[in-house]
Amino acid sequence: xxxxxxxxxxxxxxxxxxxxxxxxxxxxxxxxxxxxxxxxxxxxxxxxxxxxxxxxxxxxxxxxxxxxxxxxxxxxx
Length: 77
Description:
The chain has helices at residues 8-11, 54-59; strands at 4-6, 23-26, 29-32, 43-44, 47-48, 72-76. By secondary structure, it is an alpha+beta fold. It has one domain (5-76): Roll (Flavocytochrome B2, Chain A, domain 1). A hairpin with a 2-residue loop joins strand 2 (23-26) and strand 3 (29-32). It comes from Secundilactobacillus collinoides.
């Protein structure tokens, strides 16, 4: 399967609300956080799914360490 490229508008549809999957982008890579317990209803420590969280993850205590276990679903345009 070819890698999907998301625009910011397309990414915003994956907000984890109303049955939608929850995707976040970090440094141009789009990750699926749908099954992550800490991302219930598409929210995690003031962040919401469907956005580019590059700046937020740089400031998070865990940094990018948590990304390695997440499924990659595409890239951000």
